[in-house]
Structure formats: structure tokens, C-alpha cells
Specification:
Length: 261
């Protein structure tokens, strides 16, 4: 009968030490290889492939605004920071960035679709179709006759929604809202394409819409009484509880006293 002899402690320690040294050696080799790869010019980003429905984000624009902010190689580039650099470029709403081995970035861009100008004419702000305010060169806007919207900060989406709701009501009368504003007191005001000024007043969207519909349903009849069309409208005030007040070009309700000359 044989017995397994216990391994001397010094042999056990030697084996463990050898194993530990081997692991350290492998780690050093791997680290050296990775360090070489991270620094090697082969993995430096040398090509950026941009896709998406883009019309304003030209190669020159991206080279000017984005490329100077990029740093690192295929292994070290911070993709989150890179994404933010692309989204800071004019007209870019959203960017999705991926690495492509060994030295390429694939970038998919979504541009802002301008729905309206925002704020004063001296500002370079626009509103996209999501109701988000962004800054860009307004001279690059391709759509014709965009409206100008304005309102308190953070209310652009609400203003755009109300504009779209009311604009659809005016369209059958061949009228359009060129300017539309929400003031600090919650009142709505518009300037039409005929230069007429409309005061809608405040209240819930449903209340404003109801007043507008009542106004437009009777506007043609009212203007016809004076031999005019809705295009002759100069001002309209819908803030009255049981009706509205209007002024027409070339029409006056002032009665002159013939005895006073």
C-alpha cells in the first residue's frame, strides 16, 4: 500500500511564484501590445464616413466645426465626446457614431428641419419640426415663406403646435399667419400675410380654437356687408366674450356731424 507524500512547502511556494510570474509576464506583454496598437499610426482615425439625409452639413462645414475637436485613435477615441462635437455643428440635430476597424468612424446624422424662424428678426434662431429651437445661418433656409414665431423661453413647442392648429383654420380663407406670438401673459397674437393684426386672447387651446372658428365662419359675411373681402381685414380682436371687433381697410364706422364744419 502506497501513500501520497505531501508536497514540500518550498516546492508549493515555488510553483505558485512561477505561476504568478507567468501571469505578470503575460499581462506585461498584452499591455505592451495594446500600448503599441493605441499609438500606432495605423489605428489613427483617418477617414470619417457620414450618412443620413443631409443638405446643410457639407464636408467643409464638418471639417471646420468638428474635426479640430477630435482626438485619439480607433481604440482611444471618446465616442460620447465625438457625438457631442458633431451635434454642436450647425444644422445637426442628432449624431450616431461608431468605430470601424482599423481607422474609420461611421457617423449617421439627422439634420434639423426648419419649421419657422424664432424670435426677433435680428436673431439667427429657428424652430424645427419637433418644436426645438436651434441656431443656424438663416440664409441657408431653403423653404420659402417660413413663419416667424416667438414666445417665452421653453415654450417653442407649444407655440409651434398652436400655430399649426390655427394656420389650418385660416387656409380655406386664403389667409396665412406670417407671424405668431405668445406673450408673457398667455395671450396669442398673429400678423397675417395681408398685414392684418389678430388678437386671439388667452385661455386653453380649445377655447382659442373655438373663438377662431367662430370668427372665420362669419368673417366673409361681415366683410361682404361693406363690399369687402377677408383680405381687407386690418385688425381683429377676438378677446370679447360674445363676439369680436374688426377694422376693415377703407371702411369707417365714424358718423360725421354735418352741422360741425
Amino acid at each position: 500500500m502506497t501513500r501520497d507524500m505531501p508536497v514540500p512547502i518550498d516546492v508549493t511556494l515555488m510553483n505558485r511564484t512561477a505561476s504568478a510570474l507567468f501571469i505578470v509576464f503575460v499581462a506585461l506583454v498584452v499591455g505592451a501590445v495594446l500600448g503599441w496598437a493605441w499609438r500606432h499610426p495605423l489605428f489613427a482615425i483617418s477617414h470619417i464616413a457620414v450618412t443620413g439625409e443631409i443638405t446643410h452639413s457639407t464636408a467643409m462645414t464638418l471639417r471646420t466645426h468638428v474635426v479640430p475637436q477630435l482626438s485619439g485613435t480607433f481604440f482611444t477615441m471618446d465616442l460620447a465626446r465625438t457625438r457631442l462635437a458633431f451635434e454642436a455643428a450647425p444644422w445637426v440635430r442628432q449624431a450616431v457614431v461608431h468605430r470601424a476597424f482599423p481607422n474609420q468612424l461611421n457617423v449617421q446624422l439627422q439634420e434639423h428641419q426648419a419649421a419657422a424662424y424664432w424670435g426677433a428678426e435680428s436673431e439667427s434662431k429657428l424652430v424645427n419640426n419637433f418644436g426645438e429651437v436651434f441656431e443656424a445661418n438663416v440664409g441657408e433656409v431653403e423653404q420659402e415663406a417660413l413663419p416667424r414665431l416667438s414666445g417665452p423661453e421653453g415654450q417653442a413647442a407649444q407655440v409651434l403646435t398652436m400655430y399649426q392648429t390655427l394656420q389650418s383654420q385660416f387656409k380655406p380663407a386664403a389667409l396665412a399667419l406670417d407671424q405668431f406670438e405668445l406673450n408673457g401673459h398667455g395671450g396669442w397674437r398673429a400678423r397675417l400675410n395681408t398685414d392684418a393684426l389678430i388678437e386671439f386672447g388667452g385661455g386653453s387651446p380649445a377655447e382659442v380654437l373655438a373663438r377662431t372658428q367662430q370668427f372665420l365662419q362669419t368673417l366673409t359675411q361681415v366683410t361682404a356687408r361693406y363690399g369687402r373681402t377677408p383680405q381687407a381685414l386690418e385688425t381683429a380682436d377676438l378677446r370679447h366674450q360674445d363676439g369680436y371687433a374688426i377694422r376693415l381697410r377703407g371702411v369707417t364706422t365714424l358718423v360725421l356731424d354735418s352741422s360741425k364744419k
